[in-house]
Each structure stands twice: as C-alpha cells, then as structure tokens.
Design brief:
The protein is α/β, with parallel strands linked by helices. The protein has 14 helices and 21 strands. The protein binds adenosine-5'-diphosphate, magnesium ion and zinc ion.
Length: 479
C-alpha cells in the first residue's frame, strides 16, 4: 500500500513546499499554500513517466513528425486555429469563461470526429448524462451513427475515465472540465491545484501512452488565467481560448499556445439555438451596423494571421474634469494608445493631453497588429475635431514616433478584402516601391500622420499638397 505524504501546494502557481508558509516563495502570493496529501506511489509513477514513449533514439532523418495524420473536427474554423485538426496523442486545453460555449463546442466536435473517425469518449463532471443528451438533441446530434459513436461518461473520477478509454480505445477523449476532476489518491477538493495538476498529468499519460487525443476543458477566472495552476498551460500541447463579448453572439477562437501550428489564426463563430455556427463572412463580422459616418469611427483593414479582417475603431474624446484624464482602451493595447496620443499631439497637431479618451474595437475583438495604428489615430482625431471620416473609407498603417507612416505587410490583400466589402477609398502609407492598385479602391498614399488626418477629415475637398492626387482621381471618376 502506498505511503501518504503531506505537502503544501501553492494554489496560484503549483509550487510545492514541505512546510506551511504565509507567502509562496515562488510566485509571492499570500495565503495560497494548502496542505495536500501526495502518495509515494503517484510520485514514483510520475518519475517513470518518460518511459511511456519510445526510449530508443532515432536518427533525425527518420523522425517523421510532419507526416502525422490529423483528425479534422468537422468545424473548419477550429481546424484552422489548431493548424489542420487535432493531432492524435496530443493534449489540448480549451479555456473560456463559464457560459461562453466550451461544452457546446466540444459536443459538436465530438459529433464531428465521431462521424468521420468513430469513437469519442465524452467525460463530464459538470452535467448528468441526461442533460448532455438534451443538449445533443438541441445541437442536432440526437440520433444517427455519430451520436452512437459518442460514449458519455458522467464522472469526476480520472481513474474511471482512463479505464474506460483503455477499454474502448476512442480516437478522442473530452474531459469537461478539468476543475471537476479528482484523483483518488489525493485528498484535496476538485479544482484545487493538486487535483487539477495530477488529473492533467494522468490524462497526459493516457494521451501520449495510447496515442489518443485528449481535450481538457478549463474554466477561466476573472483575471483571465485558466483556473488552477499555470503549470497546466506548460503541460499541454496547445491552449485554445474561446472568448466573446458578454451578451453578444460572436465567439472567437484563438490559440495562445500551439506546438503543432501557429498561434495567430483566428476562428470566428456565432452562438445560436443549435450551437456554434461558423460565420460565413468573417471579414464583415466585426463591422458595426450603422449607416452614415459618425465622428470617432474609422474602419481598419487589419490582418488576423493569414486572414484580412475589417474592424471598426470607435473613439470618444471629451474635455477632462479635474485630475488625471482617463485613458480607456478595449481590444487595443493601452500602451499603443498612449503612444498614438503622444504622436498625435506632438507631430500631427491634435493635442489630447487634457481630454478623456476612450477607444475600442466593435464586436469584442482584440487586435494587436501595427497596421491598426492609423485607424486608431484617425478615430481619435475625428472625435476631437468632431468631423466624420467619409463613409467607404478604410485606413491601414503603422505610426512611428516621428509621426511617419510605415508600410504594413499584405497591403493588397487587405485592400482587396475592403473592396469586396464595398469600401472605395483607402488611406495608406506612401510606399517607396510605388503605389498599390486594387480595383474599386481609390488609394490615398500619405507620408505622415498630419497628412493622414488632413486627408481623412476633409473628405473629397483636401487642401495643400494632397490635392493633385485626389483631383486627378476625381476627374477620372467624373470623366
Ligand atoms: N436551451 C438553450 N437554447 C439556446 N441557447 C442555449 C441554451 N442553453 C444554453 N445555450 C447557450 O449556450 C451557452 C452555454 O454554453 P456552454 O457550452 O454550456 O458553456 P460553457 O461550457 O463554456 O460553460 C449559453 O450562454 C447560451 O448562449
Ligand atoms: Mg460547460
Ligand atoms: Zn505560488
């Protein structure tokens, strides 16, 4: 029989200590150490873990990693984010706030994988088998061969899941959620760091040892981290985050870690009565629905991974009362916003030092891409001057500290997408290699932010050195 030992495990970072201390020496959090019983057997097992795979070294030339056959999930947006489907034997973590749709997504994935590859084990510690059946019916997976190939196990015992998986040998195991799972030998409650970590370790053994893909669901806490230990994120092969605006229908899927693909692809879904639906036209999904131009609104032609995405930046600028002016950014990096405010003031004659500033992207999207700079700066200037930017205009460009505009990658792809969605004018950085030409779009190249503000806010009647470019373009339209 295994001998029990007691350790003090930090609930914030997962570090282990022999004695209780008020502050964790590893992450400096206070009062996070909790006594956890760890059996010697589980530690010995863990030490033996590396043996699970092959222990014979192979020549590099014989290591055929690139040839793995992936399991398509039946949801193309998810497959894109994963890099082409789920890799057999991998351990994935899908995180998101409660209610965002993690269980919905994974039940649909279970149906999709079962339809094409057979054999999925859906283990849930959150719902009863009956509740899961009702949900499946609502998602349209009620009957048929796919539903027969999804085995449901309502349990919170990791041992039971591993036992069932070793017998049934499914292609995919879903564990919903890792915070409800417990390992018999540990006596901490479900959701404690000790339980979460040990459960995940054993499920990793299952994945690597048996070549079965395992997907863990993880609830995300208010501060945005996956509840439980950070160590979980280091353990898994990929971390996929499902997010979206509270109360909205749009759902975004993004990898924050991916051993088998890139982390900059974005998946876009809509939540409906019958589950998550892929958005047919993601390029349009983040444009707010209002007609007519309003001061403070500028559309950017951004890139998300390999996909051009049009997003609307909204800014509101108002004289500040007493104290430090407010700076609020949502979907935009606040440091980037601060930099753009400084450049606007010093280099473009739009001083906002004594104004409250609010800037956000519509649709709950977050974009960290330099090409967004120009649209943010123009939205701020537009709100400050209370002049709208003409409808049908998009802006792309990185803003430098001197107020200069820098070219961005994939300009023609961005502008083609803008043209497809009905935009007809683009304010872009002046390129050294000549202008881009995209059918249906009048390109307005500008050298710096000052000229960009002038071009954007004076619409079709620009003064100064921009006039020749514009007039020529106008003449062509009229004539
Ligand atoms: N009966 C229902 N009809 C329509 N939509 C529902 C229904 N039940 C749940 N939903 C939708 O599914 C969401 C919950 O999804 P779920 O997959 O349970 O989230 P999670 O597993 O991330 O906590 C709800 O926020 C709601 O949008
Ligand atoms: Mg759930
Ligand atoms: Zn700690």
């Amino acid at each position: 029989m295994a001998r029990a030992q007691s350790r003090f495990v930090c609930q914030s970072c997962g570090a282990e200590f022999l004695r209780w201390e008020g502050q964790c020496r590893s992450c400096n959090e206070w009062n996070t150490l909790v006594e956890t019983v760890i059996t010697v057997r589980s530690q010995e097992r863990r030490r033996a873990l590396p043996v699970a795979g092959s222990i014979t070294p192979v020549p590099l030339s014989a290591a055929t990693e690139g040839a793995v056959a992936r399991l398509p999930t039946g949801m193309r947006e998810l497959d894109r984010v994963l890099g082409g489907g789920i890799v057999p034997g991998s351990l994935l973590l899908i995180g998101g706030e409660p209610g965002v749709g993690k269980s919905t997504l994974l039940l649909q994935v279970a149906g999709g994988v079962a339809a094409a590859h057979g054999g999925v084990l859906y283990a849930t510690g959150e719902e009863s088998a009956g509740q899961l059946r009702l949900r499946a019916a609502r998602l349209g997976l009620g009957g048929g061969p796919a539903a027969d190939a999804v085995a449901v196990l309502a349990t919170s015992e990791v041992g039971a899941i591993i036992e069932a998986a070793r017998q049934a040998r499914p292609a995919l195991v879903v564990v919903d959620s890792i915070q409800t799972m417990t390992v018999e030998e540990l006596d901490g409650p479900a959701g404690s760091v000790g339980q979460v970590r040990e459960s995940a370790l054993r499920l990793m053994e299952l994945a690597k040892g048996e070549g079965i893909a395992v997907v863990l669901v993880g609830h995300v806490t208010k501060d945005g981290s996956i509840a439980g230990p950070r160590t979980l994120e280091h353990l898994v092969d990929a971390v996929i985050e499902l997010g979206g605006e509270r109360g909205g229908v749009m759902r975004l899927l993004r990898a924050s870690k991916n051993r088998f693909g890139s982390t900059d692809e974005l998946g876009v879904f809509e939540m409906g009565e019958s589950g998550l639906r892929e958005v047919a036209d993601p390029g349009r999904a983040f444009l707010a629905e209002h007609d007519g131009a309003a001061p403070g609104s500028v559309v950017a032609a951004a890139m998300e991974g390999s996909r051009p995405l049009l997003v609307e930046v909204q800014a509101l600028v108002a004289p500040a009362g007493y104290g430090t002016p407010a700076r609020r950014a949502s979907g935009i990096d606040p440091t980037r916003l601060a930099l753009l405010l400084a450049v606007l003031g010093r280099r473009a004659g739009v001083g906002l030092g004594s104004h409250d500033v609010y800037a956000n992207l519509t649709g709950g999207l977050t974009v960290a891409e330099p090409g967004l700079d120009l649209a943010v700066a123009l939205a701020l200037a537009s709100s400050m001057r209370d002049r709208p930017v003409d409808r049908g205009t998009v802006a792309v460009g990185e803003v430098g500290l001197l107020g200069e505009l820098r070219p961005v990658s994939g300009l023609d792809r961005r502008l083609r997408e803008a043209a497809r969605l009905g935009f007809f004018r683009a304010i872009v950085p002046e390129g050294r290699r000549g202008a881009v030409a995209v059918e249906g779009i009048r390109v307005v190249p500008v050298a710096n932010l000052r000229d960009a503000v002038r071009a954007a806010l004076t619409g079709g009647d620009p003064p100064g050195e921009l006039a020749p470019v514009m007039v020529e373009a106008e003449t062509r339209v009229v004539g």
